[in-house]
Amino acid sequence: MQFPRRPGGTWMPLLMAMILGPCAASLAAVPAEIAAQAKRGQSLFVANCILCHQVTGRGTPGVYPPLAASDFLAKPDGRKEAILAVVQGLRGKLAVNGATYDNQMPAVVLDDARTADLLTYVFNAWENPGGHFDADEVGAVRRTSAFKTYAALVEANAYPSVPIPPEGLEIRETARLPDFAVRLAGDGKGESVLVLGQSGAVWRLDCATRKVEPLFNADAYIDRSHGDPGTLGMFLDASRRLWITCNQRNDSTRPLVTNEVTIFRTEPIGRSKEPIVPKPWFRTGYPYGIGPYNHGVSQISMGPDGKLYVASGSRTDGGEAGTDPRLGKMGETDLTACLWRLDPDAKEPSIEIVARGIRNAWSFAWDGSGNLFTVANGPDAHACEEMDWIRPELKEHHGFPYQFEDWPASRKAYPYTPAAPDGLAFALPVRNLGPAAKPSDRDGRTFEPHSSPAGMVWLDGRWPAPWRGTFLVGRFGNLIRTGDGRDVGFDVVSMALRKNAEGTGWDAGTKTFLAPLGRPIDLHLSGGRLYVLEYTRPTDFLGGRGWLPGRILELSPKP
Question: What superfamily does domain 24-156 belong to in CATH?
């Protein structure tokens, strides 16, 4: 799912999760008379389709079908079928280039003209049939679809009603967003909340007036010659310096494509009349990930020890080598599937790895006693999404890609799952005792597969029972069809943790806190209120609706 993107995990991500660079070379042979249209379509492809179908158009084997040299597009009715796929979505079994796929694609919320541009690009890229589409052709096919008109598709993707809040709390819709957003940050005082767009823009929400205004855009601080930006992490420190993590796919590096990681930092906000411009504080990189699984660097936050903590997601689904010669076949690297720690005051900071084997920790947070926990997305292989207890001083390994949940060594997620190094011990995930969010068929470690845990916060004593002293975790929701054919996630759950009987780990009593939601991707506490960032609007996946930017909800205790 960068179609929009997801925060990592079952597909990706996503979310997350980051924006990949367009493949400009694929337009080199496009006839001049349709080149401008195809170029517009390329931008739409990057914004709506690239995570599943990839920058190369090759898709993801077994999950998302290829668009490159596609026999589905080349068949006699391929043009009509392609239009229908965009305007109403696809579900069920589909044969493409000799392989069968059984997943679901939501409709793409584009009008007739932009749909024509998108398909003109696809049909002229990657050795496909060529030609061009126009709005009249798209409109004629749309009238035979489930939505009939573009207006009907937009209506199907309208903002849902505000969900019913938990007892003792009240809720309101506080802002509708101009673009897809992934993070919230602020000083906790409740006057304003900063909102990070997935492509680098930052907006400011005035909590009193509920107005959203731009603070700065990506071009003010990101060098696009290194690739299009995917910004997945942001926080404001005690000195009011804003920190942002950015991933850029650089196709110009040789011999391998690189994921270039930059941590940006501003001067203290509000202490100068000069424009706010983030500047590079730290740079690093590693070979870009296999298929859609380059989760990249996401959350950044300051720990109780005064150090920066940064989540770095995996570059594979489960340690696979991949087939693209430009993408490294080394599985994970020293900088991926782990949690970093850096000194924020260092002139030349270096990375200390404080935990390994975490597939994609989109978020992490500390409880009231200083215990650190992450929530991470699992693989496509139907393993649980994990909450892990991180003990930085022990630098433990949490299993990925060798072990998921508490599976024995003989149980492999994939035929290619590597054997664990001799003597390597794993710290087990938190056990979910339910009643909510746990697998129905086994002991839960931690959430149902594919529910995509995202933002998390700790509620202190200022919140009413039974929520005080618990973690809240937003679950983005599934992006592929689950084994039992239902949607999972699209909610916020409350997790009350206690040490297990052995004293070696944690058990969680988990309850639904707020549902249904439009893919909650981040949570933020400010001024005694909880802000929930919805990435988009549909509150399910199986309904097949498309993607439009979401909103921010505000919850607070009743007076």
Answer: Cytochrome c-like domain (1.10.760.10)
